[in-house]
Specification:
The protein has 758 residues and is α+β, with helices and mostly antiparallel strands. It has 28 helices and 27 strands. Helix 2 runs parallel beside helix 3 and helix 26 packs parallel to helix 27.
Length: 758
């Protein structure tokens, strides 16, 4: 191995999933057990995420090489967009042993097959016992930043994550000025960037998989001898949020690895930690029906990337599984991350994705950074198709026509893929071109690549506020999803009224648009989203409330455990004060009271914020409407056949936040409420229907697509048969994606309850 090859075989910094790491990606290690006669599924999916801020493909594979043995390892193509590309692959190689490499095109994700010898090597790392029955699969979820917005789908709790960093960058690149070639030194990130990227990946795992274990892996042990110095820097920068489950080795919080070493035992300690940590996870010992594993094996053996749910139901019935048991089966495997199945619309429900690689490949046809999309402009098939202008428009303005999406997806499951992107707020309808001959969409995943400065010469700043995420971090995708939500709402006829709607203009960090005659500017910077309303706006506080409500919809569907705070900015002193403190003081009439900003260093009078409360909208960060609530009437006690006063039936993806708000208000009035999110574990159909029968009243939360849910229809039918009082409650915030008109509800009402709205 030459000097260049040796250098390129090592790992730099970054999260990756799989044996291969790429900068800013995630390693996912899944483990499967041997199943015995007691129907014990010893281990169904362990995730291993390797986080990186410059590690690269070759470096990742070097690390994977130390963990595996005797196999051909697929090598991701080099990523040359100043993110770094050689480290992830050297990490992958360190997990394997010295075998030849095969070059593949760069992709957003890659599954790395492990041979029986690879599995045996990992199993031998475990002591005698059940741990030796585990088998593993490993994923690298790619290095393109545009895919960070998908973390909520692919980072799950049933996994083991490896977060990889380049120890040289943590120590500081200045210490290697005399040790590295100038071109190699240039590839190193600054300590600030390395720490920031490391913290980003740890925070993402903490947010989406808070109970999943994490192993930190530091590379370039051959060049870094002072490991305590690395440890001190990591400790000083507080890279982990409180409660992050990092599994430390002896004496350090990370595993140092030399990917360039030829010693087959160079990653032995890391291999042992992977196996022992994976084996200790509770889901490894979870018992499930043996038929479930058999069904899954048959699905995988079909080599199909996806199955129709109706066909899967038939296959499951041949193994004695009912429709309800099949629902549980699919929900279980979806929770493990081995299949993808969403139930928020009929189009999504009809498809079960067996190969997440297929789904990612399809999405990457639309969402890709400039480096990976550039080759498409020279694709002769694209030019011959007549869609080249549509593709250029999509890349330059993030606006995609239905025809270009259909062509990019080769007309394969277009409705499913479109609805999948819409459900995950990666795509939204764009209705600002009256002359458009077909449906158009804003591709939020492409907004991160729009760097052209946004000119706002006619905007006059007025009231402003801040969505602050300083208590944790601002995940990728929140801002761009908010832009898409705003654009879809702004184009509606009932919002614009008789006024011509403003065509939104946006880039990666700003967007200017309007709700009717109310113009506003959104800006993201660091961990805050700044909202500024034009001073000529008619209802500035209402715009703020709408924008905050849109974010809350995101939080409920995607970022459930993300802490945030609304800060109002004084129009006079520019001091930012918590909305909660201001609302309480303003309601109490303490206008002359001075409150402090989050840092405690600056103060402002409550009276300075009077303009935020003139519209009497209630809490700007909640569902209240500003009206006084009458005192609750006394609650009668439950009867012997009643467990709760109210059963709330809803679709989680579209009605979860509304239902939760309703639950809080009912419970505050002394009612006992059955609400599925308040129950731990997986609730099956029988448990849900039993809860309906033992509730005094059935409340149906009406949101878009409510009657497409088989679970809701089962609950509603049960309530009818049990003669329960049925109270429909509807989403009345028309800006939300969950809103639907009553004509839509009436048109889709099940036949067994056709008179529900009469």
């Amino acid at each position: 191995m030459g000097d260049d090859d040796e250098e390129n075989s090592r790992a730099k910094t970054g999260p990756t999933a799989g044996w291969v790491c790429r900068k800013s990606s995630t390693f996912l290690v899944r483990s499967w057990p041997e199943i015995d006669q007691t129907n014990r599924l010893a281990d169904l999916n362990k995730r291993n995420s390797l986080s990186d801020n410059g590690i690269g493909d070759k470096g990742a594979k070097a690390l994977a090489k130390a963990l595996e043995t005797n196999t051909t390892l697929q090598l991701l193509g080099l990523n040359t967009n100043n993110i770094g590309s050689e480290g992830h692959t050297s990490l992958a190689n360190a997990l394997k042993q010295n075998r030849r490499l095969q070059t593949l095109p760069a992709d957003v994700a890659q599954k790395f097959p492990l041979s029986e010898e690879d599995q045996a090597l990992l199993q031998r790392s475990a002591p005698e016992g059940p741990e030796r029955e585990l088998s593993f699969t490993i994923w690298d979820y790619g290095g393109q930043q545009v895919f960070y917005a998908l973390h909520h789908i692919f980072l799950t709790e049933k996994g083991l994550y490896l977060v990889v960093f380049d120890m040289r960058e943590i120590i500081g690149k200045s210490e290697f000025e005399t040790k590295l070639k100038p071109e190699d030194l240039e590839l190193l990130a600054s300590r600030e960037d390395a720490i920031g990227n490391l913290r980003f990946w740890l925070n993402s795992i903490k947010l989406h998989a808070p109970n999943a274990p994490i192993l930190l892996v530091g590379t370039y042990l051959d060049q870094v001898k002072d490991l305590l110095k690395v440890e001190r820097h990591l400790a000083a920068h507080k890279i982990c949020a409180p409660g992050t489950l990092v599994i430390p080795p002896n004496g350090l919080r990370f595993f140092p690895v030399d990917n360039s070493s030829v010693d087959p035992e160079r990653a032995a300690e890391l291999r042992r930690a992977i196996v022992s940590t994976a084996a200790a996870q509770p889901y490894v010992s979870e018992r499930v029906p043996l038929a479930w594993l058999k069904i899954y094996e048959e699905l995988v053996a079909s080599s199909e990337p996806y199955w129709l749910y109706s066909d899967l139901i038939q296959r499951a019935s041949s193994h004695g599984q009912s429709r309800n048991e099949t629902d549980d089966l699919v929900a279980y495997f979806h929770g493990l991350g081995v299949v993808v199945h969403l139930r928020t619309s009929p189009a999504l429900e009809r498809i079960v994705v067996l190969d997440p690689q297929w789904l990612l490949d399809k999405l990457s046809c639309v969402i890709a950074d400039d480096l990976h999309a550039e080759k498409m402009f020279y694709d002769p098939q694209l030019r011959a198709s007549g869609h080249i202008e549509a593709y250029e428009r999509m890349r330059s303005s993030s606006i995609a026509s239905h025809s270009i999406l259909e062509w990019l997806w080769r007309k394969q499951e277009v409705t499913f893929l479109r609805d999948f992107m819409i459900a995950n707020m990666l795509l939204s309808e764009w209705r600002f071109d009256e002359d458009a001959e077909e449906d158009e969409f804003l591709v939020t995943g492409l907004l991160s690549g729009m760097t052209e400065p946004l000119e706002t010469p006619h905007f006059e700043p007025g009231l402003s506020c801040i969505l602050s995420f300083d208590k944790f971090f601002l995940p990728n995708g929140v801002f761009h999803r908010l832009v898409a939500q705003c654009a879809e709402y702004a184009s509606r006829d009932d919002v614009a009224g008789d006024d011509e709607p403003m065509t939104p203009r946006q880039n990666n960090a700003q967007a200017i648009m309007s709700f009717g005659a109310n113009d506003f500017l959104l800006t993201v910077r660091g961990n805050v989203i700044h909202i500024c309303i034009d001073k000529r706006a008619v209802q500035p506080a209402l715009v703020i409330k709408l924008l905050v409500s849109m974010f809350r919809e995101q939080k409920d569907t995607i970022f459930r455990k993300l802490p945030w705070e609304l800060l109002l900015v004084s129009p006079t002193s520019q001091v930012s004060i918590s909305h909660g403190k201001l609302a309480k003081a303003h309601q109490a009439g303490k206008l002359k009271r001075r409150l402090r900003d989050p840092s405690g260093g600056r103060t402002a009078y409550v009276s300075e914020f009077d303009a935020f409360f003139r519209e009497d909208l209630g809490a700007l960060d909640g569902d209240g409407d500003g009206k006084q609530v009458s005192s609750p009437v006394p609650v009668s006690p439950l009867g012997p056949d009643e467990d709760t006063h109210v059963f709330i039936s809803h679709v989680q993806a579209t009605g979860g936040d509304l239902s939760d708000a309703l639950r809080c208000k009912l419970e505050n009035r002394g009612l006992k409420v059955w609400f599925d999110q308040a129950h731990e574990g997986n609730l099956n159909r029988a448990a849900m229907l039993a809860a309906v029968r033992r509730a005094r009243t059935y409340v149906l939360v009406l949101t878009k697509g409510i009657f497409a849910s088989e679970a809701v229809k089962d609950e509603l039918r049960c309530a009818f048969e049990a003669n329960k009082p049925i109270v429909p409650v509807h989403e009345n915030e028309t800006h939300r994606l969950s809103y639907a008109t009553f004509s839509e509800y009436i048109a889709t009402t099940p036949s067994f309850c056709s008179g529900i709205f009469l």
